[in-house]
Design a protein that fits this description.
The chain has about 260 residues and is of the alpha/beta class. The chain is about 35% helix and about 25% strand. Strand 3, helix 1 and strand 4 form a beta-alpha-beta unit. The longest helix is centred in the last third of the chain and has 15 residues. The chain binds zinc ion. The site of zinc ion has 5 residues, from loops.
């Protein structure tokens, strides 16, 4: 039986995610941006919260942990590298670890850059990855704590997942990401189609996520840093690909 996945908005533009296994009745939240929104979704379905799986220490991913833990006694899993910055972790994981949720394996992929200890959670049997603030649709996270090289490696690790892996991320940023993406890769038909579809979805009041690894490899400029047209546009023709990525990320930081 497949996992039921519920995606909903929290705070301003964060995604809340619930995973539910009907056979065992177990439910997990990926991150805890906002306790009230998560409780509302749980109660609407008559679910209890058994686990919280935390990707990184930022407040818009952890603010709900204490209240949800107090109410449901949920077991909280998160990155060992950020244990000093996240209150309430019960189980520490590090890149390369494997654990189980409701009998399904979950692989911990290290994705440093946005924060130093951020992890993505990959569910190989379900073909799902929760990339939080590392990879967004048509964009990537700001490099706040790590180096550009680290972030580039993190994105490469995500891009190496099977093409049909379904991608969930931490924020609904696709439309603003599309504006930047089109400025650096304007002739990419996959990007033009992806951006048009995102616009249509938002106008219909729907989320633009999930995406897939294949769709992002085709349309997301941060995964296409070695494409000749992107190199040419940034004026970094012969540079190593990690430098092209860094130039892209810096251009996005100052893009208005
Ligand atoms: Zn963050």
């Amino acid at each position: 039986m497949t996992l039921e996945i519920v995606q909903f908005m929290c705070l301003e533009d964060n995604f809340g995610i619930l995973l539910h296994d009907a056979a065992s009745g177990r439910t997990a939240a990926v991150d805890a941006p906002e306790a009230a929104a998560i409780e509302r979704e749980l109660e609407a379905r008559g679910w209890r919260l058994d686990e919280i799986l935390v990707t990184h220490h930022h407040g818009d991913h952890t603010a709900g942990i204490a209240a949800l833990k107090a109410k449901y006694g949920a077991v909280v899993t998160g990155p060992a590298a950020e244990a000093d910055k996240i209150e309430g972790l019960d189980r520490l994981v590090k890149p390369g670890d494997r654990f189980e949720f409701a009998g399904r394996p979950v692989e911990v992929i290290g994705t440093p850059g946005h924060t130093l200890g951020q992890v993505a959670l990959y569910w190989p049997t379900e073909k799902l990855v929760f990339a939080a603030d590392a990879l967004f649709s048509l964009g990537c996270g700001r490099v706040i704590e790590g180096t550009m090289d680290q972030m580039w490696s993190s994105l490469q690790a995500l891009a190496a997942l099977p093409d049909d892996t379904v991608l969930y991320c931490g924020h609904e940023y696709t439309l603003s990401n599309a504006r930047f993406a089109l400025s650096v890769d304007p002739d990419n038909p996959a990007l033009l189609a992806h951006a048009a579809e995102a616009k249509r979805l938002r106008e219909a009041g729907k989320p633009t996520l999930p995406s897939t690894i294949a769709a992002e490899k085709a349309a997301n400029p941060f995964l296409r840093a070695d494409h000749p047209s992107i190199r040419a546009r940034l004026g970094v023709d012969g540079a190593p690909v990690a430098e092209v990525f860094a130039a892209l990320r810096r251009a996005k930081d100052s893009f208005r």
